[in-house]
Specification:
alpha/beta; globular; about 140 residues; 4-stranded mixed β-sheet; about 15% helix; 8 strands
Amino acid sequence: MGGTMPDIKTFLMFDGKAEEAMNLYTSVFDNSEIIRIVRYGANEAGAEGTVLQAVFSINGQELMCMDSSIKHDFTFTPSMSLYVTLEREEEVDHAFERLSQGGAVLMPLAAYPFSKKFGWLTDPYGVSWQLTVAGS
């Protein structure tokens, strides 16, 4: 098989909170930004002004998201999570505190056999995050 490598991005589907979530994520991690937002317009499938499709980056890693125009019987689950390795323990502490506010702690910040500092949480939007310090 020749040609270019596939471009694979994590895609998050929200229920009206995509922009709020992106703003939280890009404020928590350094070198992060919202790259592009396309919004639903008047008389389109989604609520006007909500996110039809967006691209944002966390420390250079691009992710995509949207606000679904359809109500679904499913949402995020911790069986799929974003695993983030940070350089310093203070960065792990900061990200864990910010992301877990309004969410739920699945594994508290602590030393574990596989990491000297690790925590697992779901954020206020239901997205699951595993945070660890480098060199563990």
